[in-house]
Amino acid sequence: MSADRTALVTGASRGIGKSIAERLTKDGFFVVGTSTTDAGIETIERYLGDRGGGVTMRIEDLASVDAALERISSSYGDVSVLVNNAGITRDNLLVRMSDDEWSDVIDTNLSGTFRLCKSLLRSMIKARWGRIVNVGSVVGRMGNAGQTNYAASKAGIEGFTRALAQEVGSRSITVNCIAPGFIDTDMTAQLSEAQTDELSATIALRRIGSPEDVASAVSFLVSDDAGYVTGETLHVNGGLYSA
Ligand SMILES: NC(=O)c1ccc[n+]([C@@H]2O[C@H](COP(=O)([O-])OP(=O)(O)OC[C@H]3O[C@@H](n4cnc5c(N)ncnc54)[C@H](OP(=O)(O)O)[C@@H]3O)[C@@H](O)[C@H]2O)c1
Asked: Is 189's pLDDT higher than 60?
């Protein structure tokens, strides 16, 4: 049933986005992945092969989003599944945080999610079917010193998700959030082995999560089986935090 459906995964060159894109192709979707660089697009096109394509997009830039969506529409048709995965960190204590560190994170993580949802909803509403999954973070619930900008963006994504779910539910479009815990990707690679061990000890499952752990939860939320789940946040954190 998903073979004729196109899924768009932002930030699919590596990490969680790559695993989500790979998983959705296994689920039968045609998958379009995005990156900000030509090298990222090459990677995406290599691993997706004929089951998808890659498109350059900077989610903080409306002109870039519009141009990418135009290319996707003309090459692949309507997108019925959107996974807003791309995200960044610019960590600093608040007293030292620059305006740019604050606004880069909000413009990318939160406003990027707004831009993509707004642009793609029209065709989902017309089709009377759609799935949107926004990637939040455990930090949006727990907080984390040095990440006020990131925590605000991710908590904002949860509120945005709940509100949008109410706006579009009558058209059989579901909007949910996935909140990963500590996942082994480039974003978390700067931690030393000792720090990782210390962190693992605070996780009920005693291990760092894998990108595949997140991808399988996304797979459920975009499936027909999840048709009665909307406005929710699904926590994938190994028991690091109980919401
Ligand atoms: N890793 C974790 O522990 C963790 C925990 C909770 C939540 N998350 C969230 O999960 C998502 C993925 O995280 P990750 O760890 O997989 O990150 P990652 O390894 O750093 O990958 C980030 C992806 O986002 C893309 N990207 C970065 N800036 C972008 C921009 N301005 N416009 C469009 N795309 C952009 C990157 O593309 P290119 O570099 O190829 O351009 C890359 O594909 C993020 O939203 C993150 O906040 C991660």
From this structure: yes
